[in-house]
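ok so I'm stuck.
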Amino acid sequence: MTIGTLVFDKSSYKTVLCLGHILDKDGRKMSKHLGNVLEPMPLMNQHGADAVRWYMLAAGSPWSARRVGHDAISDVVRKTLLTYWNTISFFTLYANAANFQISSLPKELTLMDRWILSELNKLIQGVDTALENFDSQGAGSLLAAFIDDLSNWYVRRSRRRFWDGDPVALNTLYFCLKNLTLLLAPMVPFISEHVWQTLVRVAESEQSESVHLANFPIANKSSVDEKLSNAVALSRRLVELGRAARAESGVKIRQPLSRALVSATGWEQMSEEIKTHIAEELNILKLDGIHVAGTDLVDITVKANFRTLGTKFGADVQEIAKQIASVNPGEMVKELRKNNSYQIKVKIAGKDKRIEIDLDDLVITETPRTGWSVASHGGESLALDLTLTPDLIRAGLVREVIRAIQEERKNIGLDISDRISVSWNAPGEVAAAILSAIAQISTEVLATEMKQNLAESSSANELGLWLKLTKS
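replied:
not stuck anymore, here's the structure
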């Protein structure tokens, strides 16, 4: 740089990236003296070159020091690259079963199709901007989030459409995977090239000879729907709250519950279809909104958070803590979750003053009342009614039976489209549940016949259910 400036009166560089140190898993700089060096070739032989490349690009900015270890790389492979690969495998399985042929996407798409295409176009914009700014970590974060959206929400919420060989769902998923592969190509060149050759080039022979010779995707901004994106994001957060509430209560997700109450900004504007997705994911028969979930369903106590209040108000914190203790905790938490602030009147130096506090200034304890399980985060709450009626218990047993039959299908190596004959036996309550839902169970597991065999009871599972499946 000095010579360039002296000779040409300008810097010799337009952009300089200084790479950070490579540290071991304990945060120490790698060195031969410490014996903590990981040789690159054995590392790539164990995890794959693309896994190491993805980790180095996406786990942190290139100029930041980062810890490198086998566990960290394995975690990246499991959470992102393996999920991408499994989604490719899922598409291939159902596309082959349906004799899928690529066609242009129709104008009339389902809500979930429009959502994932909106997310795809936001991703293209975001990755393009990040790579222009040498921000490989930002690009990696966006790609990882989209892979999660695609696999764990779009595919999950559209499973029945794939089971039925819906060409619109298959075309939408193919379009997303093709563009996702193009976006991943600079960061995982070998996996993306393999997918391009075995999926894209097989489906569209006129495509570029290599993924690295194809044009980078260009976003269609008219397909971006922020309102829909926000609604689906809210639905996923509420599902996570519901799962947390179930885990806290110990009630399995396969056990249907009668209702849940929801409090969240944007709930009233959410479409009925998206609300149905929440109900199905949480196995809830009915969802209702309330103004502030929790105030009537939990007992709330609050204490002053002296750490944050002390930083803000110094020596006046004791007087503020006394006023917090004197306020109705339910009303205070209600207003804080609604407006993100609450005014308290305190006497400081003999003068009345109004100060504002926020949620971080309180330690909030919520104890669910009997019969309810409540989870809250960031001003959003979901409460589950845990009351179980005989009908709900029976429906839960039916779900357990369906799961057991599906597991047995996998264990004996049946294809997804194979029809089966089911011979079964079970104790009284389970048998009654099966007999009450023969048609439902048969549809779910592709059974042409379900026959009770009263003579068999050996090798029963935890339900006392004995099964024998044969291909029809």
